[in-house]
């Protein structure tokens, strides 16, 4: 599943296990729609803590500009990465068999002041990808213009759906 684009990745898409990929690939798809280069890797906070810290510490110097981190259960990966990098970290709570993802959500969202993680909804990996695009587009003309185009299309689609329902 690890894929490294030919060009410099701007987004680090990491997860605690390859079992998280069915959720996290929605973030990858969103990045691909906007042509944003990314890398995808398993970096478990609990099973490979040394590598996880090294990943976070080296991310900015390697040219990454946003990290999307997904994990399930005792989901410490996004917060731990945020504690060792200046990059914005977007956390994706991955739902597991028990507790409907509430455990993942609460593990990620309730960060102490000073260590920010932007948490999306349970299994909200598509929004994580789109939020990363927005972060990259801030101050970036071409990407911002494309994003405005997508938003206009989205709004038109919603209006069409409302009309079709007779609203
Ligand atoms: C978490 O444990 C991972 O992020 C994953 O959501 C969960 C289960 O991992 P596996 O046992 O499927 O590898 O750390």
Automatic annotation (TrEMBL):
Which residues belong to any copy of the PurE domain?
9-158
Task: Output one GO BP term.
Answer: 'de novo' IMP biosynthetic process
Keyword Isomerase annotated = yes
Q: Any idea which UniProt keywords this protein has?
A: Isomerase, Purine biosynthesis
Q: Gene3D superfamilies given for it?
A: 3.40.50.1970
Q: Does the keyword Nucleotide-binding apply?
A: no
From the UniProt record, list the reaction(s) this protein catalyses. 5-carboxyamino-1-(5-phospho-D-ribosyl)imidazole + H(+) = 5-amino-1-(5-phospho-D-ribosyl)imidazole-4-carboxylate
Which Gene Ontology terms cover its molecular function? 5-(carboxyamino)imidazole ribonucleotide mutase activity
Give me the residues that bind substrate, please: 17, 20, 47
- Could you tell me which pathway this protein works in? Purine metabolism; IMP biosynthesis via de novo pathway; 5-amino-1-(5-phospho-D-ribosyl)imidazole-4-carboxylate from 5-amino-1-(5-phospho-D-ribosyl)imidazole (N5-CAIR route): step 2/2
| EC number, UniProt record | 5.4.99.18
State the function annotated in the UniProt record: Catalyzes the conversion of N5-carboxyaminoimidazole ribonucleotide (N5-CAIR) to 4-carboxy-5-aminoimidazole ribonucleotide (CAIR).
Which protein family is named in the record? Belongs to the AIR carboxylase family. Class I subfamily.
PANTHER family reported in the protein's UniProt record: PHOSPHORIBOSYLAMINOIMIDAZOLE CARBOXYLASE, PHOSPHORIBOSYLAMINOIMIDAZOLE CARBOXYLASE CATALYTIC SUBUNIT
Report what the protein is called: N5-carboxyaminoimidazole ribonucleotide mutase
Organism this protein belongs to: Ornithinimicrobium tianjinense
């Amino acid at each position: 599943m690890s894929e490294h684009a030919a060009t410099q990745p701007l987004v680090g898409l990491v997860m605690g296990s390859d079992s998280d990929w069915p959720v996290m690939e929605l973030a990858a798809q969103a990045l691909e729609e906007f042509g944003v280069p990314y890398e995808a890797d398993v970096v478990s906070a609990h099973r490979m803590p040394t590598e996880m810290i090294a990943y976070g510490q080296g991310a900015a110097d390697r040219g990454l500009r946003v990290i999307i981190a997904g994990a399930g259960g005792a989901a410490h990966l996004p917060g731990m990465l945020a504690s060792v990098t200046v990059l914005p970290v977007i956390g994706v709570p991955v739902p597991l068999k028990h507790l409907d993802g509430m455990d993942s959500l609460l593990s990620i969202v309730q960060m102490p002041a000073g260590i920010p993680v932007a948490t999306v909804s349970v299994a909200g990996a598509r929004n994580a990808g789109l939020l990363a695009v927005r972060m990259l587009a801030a101050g970036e003309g071409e990407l911002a213009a494309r994003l405005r185009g997508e938003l206009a299309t989205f709004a038109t689609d919603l209006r069409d759906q409302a009309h079709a329902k007779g609203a």
